[in-house]
Write a structure and sequence with these properties.
22 strands, ten-stranded antiparallel beta sheet
């Protein structure tokens, strides 16, 4: 869950030239043409310049097959751009003197545990926000992607069983689960749930009048965008756009990592507050100037990879992660930005602090070329950079990416060894348990083997034999990434463990099947 887009493409970066006034000439017509060209159902854009909203507009429809239009008040799911909102909630508590950024987490949550006792003692509130804990990329995401049923507190308790991938504070690896910890910490310190605190102390005080922090509030909003994705082809991103089930796409425990929904008008308000370093447009402050500086201060260095082909100009010279924001450069100047994605909805928020310009783009499908193309087009406009046709460049990149994924999938399936399975199907059946995820049940019935992820409601489907003792999942919910399921046998021919990996080579990192270490559960343990 860019919660995922950050790892599809790096965030864009900026230059130190004077900002131009107002959006580009013909911008609205250009966006509509691009929307139709990409097949995206809807898009909305917010632009703020020097404290004023110069654009808040929607194009297209909220849902395929429904003529209801996207407006400036249509709320979209905004994914990981919500991490900056959770950091802002913490900043408010810092201003109130209730916490400090470098307080130890266990000072406020004595029951909190990481896998390593030393890390448990040392990890700070700042560490929760900057992706340097030692956890692997997306570690623990299967607890809430999609539709995890665990409470936030129980999800946080499961952290004690997730093994680190690196040593503490030694490397950058994006995660969502530590923002879940941050959300629980807000509740422990303030006495309000993250949802209550976010709604009352951030969204309402910030004048974001249509924004929501709960599923119930979003579902109760008639003017909301529905999620869409291309899931009818060989890999996600191929085939026509389809409407996704909007109910419980993301487990409620993970809301602090990316569960907000905002409109273009809400995002314009958010951009103004950020560019004003916490000052509210109508007077007063949401957070202090000091906390604004803390939240934009890079902490964790991010590795830099050369961008391919036509995207090469976007390769930054420096890149770091701050408190819910990324800080990078483009043509020698700084930007503060973050991407976001939950299944079927993507967002990008960009701050050009030296130009006093803010940009937000939201799309109710997974059309990265449209999202990034429009965002980069606006960045170049406000930095007086000649048009580089970013929509075309991103379109070509995404076409190659999907084609490469399809080719890799075909190559991987070209010649399976049609041997096995080693055992009668009923001997693969049983309950298997991973210490951090919980139970996965395999059953044998009239239609063969089935798999059911017990922590994730409705994540179930057939197991189809692939080769040897490896099967492929065929989930009933086609939006869930299929995976290879391999049963390892002991010397007595009994299943000793089960491992998994995503079938698609371009599957989202949140499908961290590969981190599972499933072991048989004895009848006495069930």
């Amino acid at each position: 869950m860019n919660l995922r887009l950050r790892h599809m493409l790096p965030l864009l970066l900026l230059v130190t030239t004077p900002a131009a006034a107002d959006p580009p000439t013909g911008f609205a017509e250009k966006v509509e043409a691009l929307r139709k060209q990409t097949g995206a159902p809807g898009i909305a854009v917010a632009i703020v310049e020097k404290g004023r909203t110069t654009l808040a507009q929607g194009w297209g429809v909220r849902k395929l097959g429904d003529p209801a239009p996207v407006t400036a008040d249509t709320i979209f799911q905004t994914g990981s751009t919500g991490k900056a909102f959770t950091s802002t909630a913490l900043a408010i508590l810092v201003d109130q003197g209730k916490i400090g950024w470098d307080d130890k987490v266990i000072d406020h949550m004595p029951w909190f545990r990481m896998y390593d006792p030393w890390v448990t003692r040392e990890i700070t509130i700042r560490d929760l926000l900057v992706h340097r804990s030692g956890l692997g990329l997306g570690a623990g995401d299967l607890l809430f992607v999609p539709r995890g049923s665990l409470s936030r507190k129980e999800t946080v308790k499961r952290l004690a069983y997730i093994k680190p991938a690196t040593s503490f504070r030694s490397a950058y690896a994006y995660d969502n689960i530590l923002y879940t910890v941050a959300g629980q910490l807000i509740e422990e310190v303030s006495g309000k749930t993250w949802e209550e605190f976010m709604t009352q102390e951030v969204l309402a005080r910030g004048g974001m009048t249509t924004a929501t922090a709960t599923y119930e509030a979003r579902w109760a909003t008639p003017d909301r965008a529905f999620p869409h994705a291309r899931i009818g082809g060989a890999v996600r991103g191929d085939g026509p756009n389809s409407v996704l089930n909007e109910r419980e796409e993301l487990g409620r425990a993970a809301m602090p990592a990316g569960g907000l929904a905002l409109s273009a008008n809400d995002l314009a308000q958010w951009l103004k507050i950020q560019l004003a370093h916490g000052a509210l447009p109508g007077g007063g402050r949401l957070f202090s100037e000091a906390q604004a500086a803390e939240m934009w201060k890079g902490v964790t260095i991010q590795p830099i990879a050369q961008m391919p082909g036509g995207l090469a100009p976007l390769t930054p010279k420096f890149s770091s992660y701050a408190l819910g924001w990324e800080v990078e450069d483009y043509r020698g100047a700084r930007i503060i930005s973050h991407g976001g994605g939950v299944f079927g909805s993507i967002t990008h928020v960009i701050l050009l602090p030296d130009q006093d310009v803010g940009i937000a783009v939201v799309v109710n499908s997974e059309e990265v070329a449209l999202l990034r193309g429009v965002a980069h087009m606006l960045v170049d406009h406000y930095l007086s950079v000649p048009d580089q046709d970013w929509p075309k460049r991103f379109g070509e990149f995404m076409e190659k990416r999907v084609a490469g994924g399809k080719a890799a999938l075909v190559a991987g399936k070209a010649a399976p060894a049609k041997v096995g399975p080693s055992l009668p199907l009923d001997r693969y059946a049983g309950t298997y348990r991973d210490p951090w995820y919980g139970d996965v049940a395999v059953t044998d019935g009239a239609d063969g083997l089935r798999i059911d992820f017990k922590t994730t409601p409705r994540m179930a489907g057939k197991l189809v034999h692939w080769q040897y003792d490896t099967f492929v999942t065929r989930f009933e919910d086609k939006a869930i990434e299929p995976a290879y399921v391999t049963f390892a046998l002991d010397a007595d021919g009994k299943v000793a463990r089960v491992s998994m990996k995503a079938e698609s080579p371009i599957a989202d990192f949140s499908y961290d099947y590969h981190d599972l270490d499933l072991r048989p559960v004895a009848e006495t343990e069930k």
